[in-house]
Design goal:
6 helices; 67% helix; mainly alpha
């Protein structure tokens, strides 16, 4: 279980390092994708406490919208890819916690990092 928790902490760094950008809808979509993870981990309480760190509120959405002009089309594509991957995440079950965390980590790794100008 310790390995699982370390993986979640690492994932939170990847997810926040991805930044936010695109158009206003992309900011909202990003927040919705992060926030939907909380529902997907209801059956995995040890993971749920860490997923709460990934939730984005009004302040983060506002910051995202302010940074729109700093993100390239490539950055926006990476963010869309992450959002799609997060939306496709299955529900976590106590029997698949480690696999679920690995899939969450893969979302961040597969989408890639955005440019520093975009918040990477």
């Amino acid at each position: 279980m310790k390995k699982l928790l370390i993986g979640l902490v690492a994932t939170s760094s990847l997810v926040f390092g991805t930044g936010c950008g695109g158009d206003g809808d992309l900011c909202e979509d990003t927040a919705d994708a992060y926030n939907s993870l909380a529902d997907k981990v209801e059956d995995c309480p040890e993971i749920a406490q860490f997923i709460g760190m990934l939730e984005l509120g009004d302040e983060e959405i506002r910051e995202c919208k302010e940074s729109l002009d700093s993100c390239s089309d490539s950055d926006k594509d990476k963010i869309r890819s992450l959002v799609d991957c997060l939306n496709d995440m299955p529900r976590c079950r106590s029997s698949n916690e480690e696999a679920w965390v690995a899939e969450l980590q893969a979302c961040g790794e597969e989408s890639g990092e955005v440019s520093e100008a975009c918040g990477g």
